[in-house]
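Troubleshooting log. The previous structure file for this entry was overwritten by mistake, so regenerating from the original sequence record. Sequence copied from the archived sheet and checked twice against the printout by T.R.
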Amino acid sequence: MQIPSAPHLPFGTKAVSFESTHNDQIQPQKTLSPTKHCSNVPVSALNSRSEHYRRNSDMARDCLYLIDTFSLMFQVFHAIPPMTGTRGQPTNAVFGITRDLLAILDRQPTHLICALDSPGPGTRELIYPQYKANRAEIPADLKPQIPLIKQLIAGFNIPGIELEGWEADDIIATATRQALELNMDVVIVSSDKDNRQLLGPHVRMFNCRRNEFYDSDSLLQDWGIRPDQVIDFQSLVGDSVDNVPGVPKVGPKTATTLLSTFQTLDAVFENIPSAGGKALQKNLTEGRELAYISRQLVTLRQDLPLQIDFTAARISPPDHNTLLPFFQDMGFRGYTAQMKKLAAAAGDSPGNTAATQAPGGPKTTRRTPSLFDSPQDNNSSTTPPASDNPGGHNTGLTAEPASAAGTLDDTTAPAVLQQLQLAPVVILEPVCSGSTVRQRQLTAAAISDGQSFWLLHTPAHSSLQSQLLQFLATYPGELCLASAKPLCHALLNAGCGLPACLFDASIADYLVDAGARGHELADIADRYAPDSSQAAPTAAPRKPRQQTMFAEADDTAAPDAPGTPDAASAAAQRLQTLLAILPGLRDALHSAGLQDLY
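Regenerated output below.
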């Protein structure tokens, strides 16, 4: 049985897009009639043609990125812990797709398209009813995020294409062929092995999770075959993920050997007597029918009736009027801030207020919610708050920079530290030395009461180091740090106790935004105080992303030698950044209802 051919559509008819109504969806028709937009020229031939064009033209090639949207969606849903928006709706997959779209846009493609699987059974189930029968149901928390992801894609002005009865991979294959006909380069954003059959001189794959490209050379190293042999390889091996049977007891190594010897699936079955031992010959003989069924299942259709509008697919600025309220509803504070900047650059003022008057009531002022508004603030008229800290804890902190008050020494330190003992909150940016946890020592610091700050150089075993350690161990108020872990190590190594109350910004940020890529000071500043993050030096090269925030890395060791003036100066800049983000971070923690948990 053959895969049913794609239906013929009149010239100019579009596939289902996110703006389409239900009545616009394409219904399969029985009559088949290929058009010039549905040619049978395979991608492999077009790859060769594109290579010829490249060698004979000085014109720059456009680059189309094709996203396997649902594949990406499942990846981020399972990778990012549960998140909820302002209305309690699940948002972790939406957040992950947003993050990946921005990362893809950073690669500066000229065109971008999102391909989606159509709901319900498709054409391959007609051939093999067990196809994808082993797939689990879509998780309950993921289902309501699918329409939100479609809204997100539309807000980025990215065409989204789905065609009833067909998978995203078939749309990708068809779009790839049409793009190659226009002499474009293509990058397929997917880890699906089926797409390897499309690889060529101008077609690569990109894995967002690994942040790496996959091309024909990668395929040769991985499977030992060419792109034009991928279909036959998968026909022999099968695919447990999609429940493609393949030939029983034929694995990747055997399939590679067979294709290296006979080149094609047809030639393998024409030469079974020459194919290895008797056991393999028996497996091939008995599995012949399954192999050819598998070939129909894994072959991607390059001739779907899709007239891709590459003009609409050209990268354009996102629609901030759509995305700004969308991100606010999702509770994505960092992305909300980015959209506000975009709106301001476009001449709009999302923070402008407008006078409104409730019927029979006093005139009130409505405003667009700010980056750090709580959900209640987002839906109510505003009056001046009684306190800058909605949590009720009077910190006395503002986002204003503290003024430099000098460098402390053995003579001046006692009076200042005694004064700081009375402050309700002290902000500290320590500089620690030592390549291991057991060797960690406090060698310099910047310290502030929120209004002024002081620098300290505390060489090992010095009197000043002892004074500072004693102060930190006995301070009765709240000690705020970007990351408390290195300081705690240094205190314990010195035989001192731990502070009575710690506020660790990295932990607070993790609670508020667990799906964020990083929780170091620079990462937090990007979301809460982007202006301050521009000037703030990083404490050390960023940790590899596969490490967790609790990894035993020396993540606050200054880039300069610990204890030097440069190290203390860098600590002072980081302390100013910490001061800038604390009010917003506290507010976000409270708005998310996580203050008690923290």
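The first helix runs from residue 43 to 55. Archived copy saved in two places this time.
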